[in-house]
Amino acid sequence: MKIKFNRGFTLIELLVVIAIIGILSSVVLASLNTARGKGANAAIKSNLNNMRAQAELVYDSTSSYDTVCNGTQDTNVAKALTAAMNAGGATSIDLAYANIGTSVKVSCHATASAYAISAPLKVLDGSNVYWCVDSTGTSIGRVSVLGASNAACPAS
Q1: Whole-angstrom distance, CA of residue 74 vs CA of residue 54
Q2: Is 137 strand, coil or helix?
Q3: Which of 15, 56, 129, 137 is deepest in the core (most CB within 10 A)?
Q4: What pLDDT does residue 99 have?
Q5: At 46, phi and psi to the nearest 5?
Q6: Under 8 Å CB-to-CB from 98, ≥6 apart: which residues?
């Protein structure tokens, strides 16, 4: 007597395996999107920290922070502002002493004795929407945008 063995998988088994692979791939893709956002936030923070070093170089050569936000005076500062804008998905750069409200802009305000630069983060960092650096050495995430003619990071 011959016993016949069926080799292969049933349709149900194949569908279960495909469903498991689909679920695992969706988890991996969600993790990758989170990593991309955090990577963009790291790029924004790095660009703003580099701007702090550039601002000190401007101050050393002119004894004033006035030209820190003037892109035509220092091309390295202008490049860092543009890089922060692109990494964060901002729509424009605000170099003037204007109230920018809730618009998504990179803000740079400077006086002779102080400066502050703020850029939107790509993804929320806790509850922080913006990253801000200023002449006092502050480098911190903030919920509120850099206000009109503020040359210091906002308190919250």
Answers
A1: 9
A2: coil
A3: 129
A4: 35
A5: -65, -45
A6: 148
Q: What angle do CA 101, 102, 105 make, to 5 degrees?
A: 95
b/e map 73-100, b = 16+ CB within 10 Å: ebeebbebbebbbebbebeebbbeeeeb
Q: 């035509």: which residue's tokens?
A: 72
The percentage of residues in the chain with a pLDDT greater than 70, rounded to a whole number, is: 80
Is the Cβ–Cβ distance between 132 and 154 less than 8 Å?
yes
Neighbours of 18 (CB within 10 A): 10
Mean pLDDT of the chain: 79
Residue scoring higher pLDDT (155 or 126): 126
Domain ranges of the chain: 11-142
Question: Token pair for residue 6?
Answer: 């069926």
